[in-house]
Inverse folding.
């Protein structure tokens, strides 16, 4: 298999882009990424998208975006795995280049929540849970996360404000990210006083649904332009795992099996152990997801993920830096684009270009994209290396 | 790259399956395919689906179907490229095995038109065309195909009944396929007297939207069970190409560029020329698509694809056997499953198990899955070979 390099990165600001459409959003990120790669010519496009057929009445994004990006004729396809669509698209792009079948692959994640043409956003999001047994009961993803959180608090005797650390860290880091939706640090009382959404889940336990697009260009090392201006970052590990959609079908709903399995496989492929990971971009669509991810991956024992956050150990350059550019909570959650934002942010960190958010000496990143409550998890290890 | 073998095939009857759901349909095909492979254990699932988020309120099919198939934990993802979703899923499965990253890949195509929970079927199908510039005008895919057909008739002076041969061939072949939706040969006057849908497109120019699921198991040759009971069929070529979604953006709307490009690349990879192709499973969602595909691939010159059909040259064992098990027209068009049905049917032919539909001495198949009016085309070359 060929070595796969992150040759170019691009992203738009995350937010409410009422003024532009899904395709314009995607193209902005694609053009950034292609420019950043020194003008490599993609032969294949992998689009990570979660809800456009419902929210924007637009399927068939592969051909559409290839055409609008001026790449008419290339191979193009859409990859969907709920909230993990971005990570899954990255993995398909990785496979295409690693196999030797494709020299240059373009991966774009895009989501446009503000289109809302078809179903409402909550109904559309609920199509990613088990439609026949969960969504049909009226359970939204937030309500489902609230049930998980409540169970977690009960099992492990966690206080109501035990999750504040996730939002505090995310907002502190997001303040320095020019592409983040929210660029303002918050105080502990902001969390404490936040409006309740679905008890015990409050406004600051939930990442905001938002519009955005992010893109990466992948290629083999021998195809990089000679004057390639960036430090080299490679995909050293890639893995994906699936679990039941419905929570009630799990033996232990408080353990994210897929997060453990996919991270373990990706680290094994990369030949590294957890201690070598410089920072962890988890999928904090809900604070309870972040806590369970920290535990599944192995940064905390069961029931103690929240404590890492409370103790400030997930802040920059403490035990394990998380959500270093704001995570889903502060950067925003642009659905199927989220996993590609993680990839872009990890590359920025590993290139040493994260400025005020820089993780000191960042060498190895673990990024993880979840679909639903870890019904899908896609994990990647990125590594900075010397040419 | 590893050699990729079609180790197992499975399919359900195509039709209106009001009594069972999307997941049950998919699982039936998956179980068939795994059994047919001698019990190989898939490590990755690629789901081809076009409209479930709209028609069945169900996204995130990868994890859902992996779980229902008893494969909880494996990698699983949904691949969408409109009507080419099945072919695109097959290609991703092929890439996964060819790359050496996955030993055994399972590809399932599934569509359930009779769910129709969300948008109506025509509205849902229209999301695969350009939403902002075509669908918004109220143009359905059938209306779009009618425009293409009318232009074709005008340019090449084709009589109104010049397309009858496509339906006649499809229904003659479908009569012998136990999984076909329509198993009855038709007479020329059936076509002539058929109800008009969108002038000049009549009922027999359109493949029926239908429910169905088909699956294939892919693996490397060295991993086949020792007592593998079937003749060996490999994927010798695989390629995909994209074009504009909107017809008005094309230089020549009467030439399917992507059909030409993807078929050409797949044949080049396989090291064959067109004359060596034993049969061609085209994407006859509309008869005009079949005519344009025959021309783009090179079986007829521009403007003469319809004549091949009229002259009976696409019937079994004439110039080029097409729609050998009924094609979309008689087997039925189960959306994102259609491309995987083609794969199953091609494998049956190459194994020599097609009985009354058998193409004599079938050795090499070209199958082609289209999204919209060839906005996406995915082409595969299957080859029978001796161990």
């Amino acid at each position: 298999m060929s070595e796969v390099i992150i040759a170019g990165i691009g992203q738009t600001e995350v937010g409410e882009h009422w003024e532009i459409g899904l395709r314009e959003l995607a193209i902005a990120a694609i053009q950034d990424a292609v420019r950043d790669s020194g003008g490599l010519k993609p032969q294949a496009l992998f689009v990570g998208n979660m809800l456009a057929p419902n929210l924007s009445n637009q399927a068939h994004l592969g051909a559409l975006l290839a055409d609008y990006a001026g790449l008419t004729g290339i191979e193009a396809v859409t990859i969907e795995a709920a909230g993990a669509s971005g990570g899954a698209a990255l993995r398909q792009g990785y496979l295409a280049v690693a196999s030797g079948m494709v020299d240059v692959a373009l991966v774009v994640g895009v989501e446009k929540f503000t289109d809302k043409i078809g179903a409402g956003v909550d109904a559309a999001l609920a199509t990613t849970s088990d439609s026949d047994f969960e969504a049909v009961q009226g359970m939204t993803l937030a309500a489902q996360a609230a049930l998980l959180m409540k169970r977690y608090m009960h099992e492990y005797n966690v206080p109501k404000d035990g999750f504040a650390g996730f939002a505090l860290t995310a907002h502190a880091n997001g303040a320095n990210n020019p592409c983040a939706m929210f660029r303002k640090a918050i105080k502990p009382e902001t969390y404490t006083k936040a409006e309740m959404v679905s008890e015990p889940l409050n406004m600051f336990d939930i990442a905001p649904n938002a519009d955005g697009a992010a893109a990466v260009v992948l290629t083999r090392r021998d195809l990089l332009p000679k004057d390639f201006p960036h430090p080299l970052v490679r995909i050293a590990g890639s893995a994906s795992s699936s679990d039941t959609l419905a929570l009630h079908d799990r033996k232990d709903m408080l353990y994210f099996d897929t997060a453990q399995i996919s991270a373990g496989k990706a680290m094994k492929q990369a030949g590294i152990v957890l201690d070598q990971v410089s920072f962890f971009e988890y999928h904090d669509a809900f604070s309870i997801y972040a806590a369970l991810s920290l535990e599944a991956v192995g940064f905390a024992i069961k029931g103690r993920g929240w404590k890492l956050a409370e103790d400030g150990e997930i802040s920059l350059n403490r035990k394990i830096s998380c959500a270093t550019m704001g995570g889903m909570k502060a950067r925003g959650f642009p659905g199927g684009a989220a996993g590609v934002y993680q990839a872009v942010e990890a590359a920025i960190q590993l290139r040493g270009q994260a400025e005020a958010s820089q993780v000191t000496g960042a060498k190895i990143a673990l990024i993880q994209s979840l679909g639903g409550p870890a019904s899908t998890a896609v994990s990647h290890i990125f590594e900075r290396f010397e040419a």
User: Anything to note?
Assistant: Chain B touches chain A through 67 residues (CB under 8 Å).
